[in-house]
Amino acid sequence: MASVEIHLGDRVVGGDNPTLVVAELSGNHSQHLGRAIELIDLAAEAGADAVKIQTYRPDTLTIECDREPFVIGEGTPWAGRSLFELYEQAHTPWEWTGDLETRAREHGMLLFSTPFDESAVDFLEHFDLPAYKIASFELTDLAFIERVAACGRPLILSTGMATIAEIDEAVTTARAAGAAELALLRCSSAYPANAAEMDLRSIPHMLDGWDVVVGLSDHTLGCAAAIAAVALGARIVEKHFVRSRSDGGPDADFSLEPHELRQLIDSIREAEASLGDVRYGPTEREKSSLVFRRSLFAVEDVTAGQHFTVENVRSIRPGGGLAPKHLPDVIGRRASCDIERGTPLTWDHLGA
């Protein structure tokens, strides 16, 4: 397991530290500030460590155009909509940022953002956010990564669709521009993602290959992928979050509801506890179970001088006698004294 760590405010992420669970609000606030604040409250109640927002305006991502390249194709929840229409519905109004950051801080949670262009970075630099995230779709925009990295904050890069060469370029660019603390998120940029396409065995490879903290940006519908990722070394888990999928919202179909987020976090903490350390032999609590191991017992009364045979000695439960591996050493020897049926054998019972 990699021992690399990054520092998000006073929170240490990576190594043997607890997994940072991030509730992604995205556009599930439905353009209502009250709903966004409620989502932060619910995420805190569920046990999330951080909340993430996205900082862009529709015209910083695309242009208002209904021509074919600007209309979303099949295979996503947004099929048939124009990019501009989707981003207009999904964007988080910039003027909310201070209120959302304050609310998260009141809950003891971190809040950070994914900026999507230089104007968003300039705006966010007015806030002391603990990190920035680069979305999967921006991972190949090296000039933008360079601009974000130059802020000197920890940088979390999502790697959906990226090749090894593209991740190499992004990491090299970020480090050269001043990002000393990096994390990479394994991600499938399908919405929702298919568990069979997550390829989580990439996580140990990423840990070894880039010497960074590794996590998971998870768009699957359940919790299994995130728990498996933690077992494989992920130390950041990001999940989209909604009050209720019935509320709608651009990402509602692949977002967790509060009780599901609580279940995910509980399962992650249980998975972390179960990983433990490299250890062999009984724990303190297991020692009381040693009695249930097999050992060698006299299963018939044996008189002094009588030979031990497979009829009067057996390997049975409980423990307390000689280990079963010593049965060949016992058979054929003579008893040194009278032995009552049900007596665990010791070396003292063996004569010539």
What profile does the largest beta sheet have? 8 strands, parallel
Q: How many H/I helices?
A: 11
- Helical proportion? 25-40%
- What class would the helix/strand composition place it in? alpha/beta
Number of domains: 2
Number of strands: 12
The coarse silhouette is elongated
Give the strand line-up of the largest sheet. Answer: 5-4-3-10-9-8-7-6
Radius of gyration: 30 Å
String of helices and strands: EEEHEHHHEHEHEHEHEHEHEEH
**Could you name the CATH homologous superfamily of the largest domain?**
Aldolase class I
User: In percent terms, what proportion of residues is strand?
Assistant: 15-25%
Low-confidence stretches: none
Characterise the protein shown here.
The protein has 352 residues and is α/β, with parallel strands linked by helices. The protein has 2 domains: 13-56 and 91-275, TIM Barrel, CATH 3.20.20; 287-349, Alpha-Beta Complex (Type Iii Antifreeze Protein Isoform Hplc 12). It has helices at residues 33-46, 58-61, 83-90, 97-106, 118-124, 142-149, 164-177, 202-210, 224-231, 258-275, 327-330; strands spanning 5-8, 11-14, 20-24, 50-55, 110-115, 132-134, 155-158, 182-187, 213-218, 236-240, 295-298, 313-316. The protein has an 8-stranded parallel beta sheet with strand order 5-4-3-10-9-8-7-6. Strands 1-2 form a two-stranded antiparallel sheet. Strand 9 (213-218), helix 9 (224-231) and strand 10 form a beta-alpha-beta unit. The two termini are 54 Å apart.
